[in-house]
Fold this sequence. Notes:
The protein has helices at residues 3-26, 31-37, 46-69, 75-106, 110-130, 140-168, 176-191, 195-211, 214-237, 252-259. It is an all-alpha fold.
Amino acid sequence: MSITTAKWLAPTSFLLDFAAQQYGMLSSPNMKDIHDRNLSFFSPQPFFIAGFFFPQQLFQLAWLYRLWKLSPNKPNERAELDQMVDFVPYYAVGNLCIGTWMIFWNSEQLKIANIFVLINSFTQLYYVFGRLQPMNTRSTSSVLTNIVSRTFAGIGVLDFLHNGSVAYFKDERATMTVRVLTGLGFGLASAASDWIFGGCLVYDLIALAVGQSGSWRNLLGAYAVGSAAIVAARNLAKPPYNGEKSGYTQTSTEELEEQA
């Protein structure tokens, strides 16, 4: 994708998603009304989702501003811009999927809505684990790209569980199989996560725990504590960002800047 295309596609997709979110909150029935009518064993406390997206959108705005600010004609900015542009197609797909999901969610066509959740969640997970470069904490662009992409993927895990459960298992309780697989899945994912994505997994579990009740709620809370411990142990033992054990390799531009 060209830099010019990326610079208009990213903010356009953000605005479309933002407009869809306003429609979802202000329409009647609104997105919370649909949530309350369609509960399942992976239904989170809905305000946790709003609490996540508000600060996450601030990071998106900062990332979009930097995408526009950097110039490809300046050698010391080109490497940073290239990484940001690489994320733009995945970012745009995510925003468009979330916006489209909102339309079908508010019309209570949950199975169709779930298709767009699946596309978004797996797109973001692919980018984070398949393409995203390790964070360079000395680069604002790298930090913002990692935060935006990893938080998108992190909340995508919750979206995947929530929407799939209400679309196909409405009003059902968590079976023993669901309980075991949830623990194993989050445990393995936590062991492979950095602080940001791992923090999102813990947040997902807390949101699920608050949204549930009884023994399932208690178990989800225990999973959240266990997930936090695994993420902390993993990242303290092997720091995930730039440093001796991060796997981060400096670009030639950054090496020249340090020499200067």
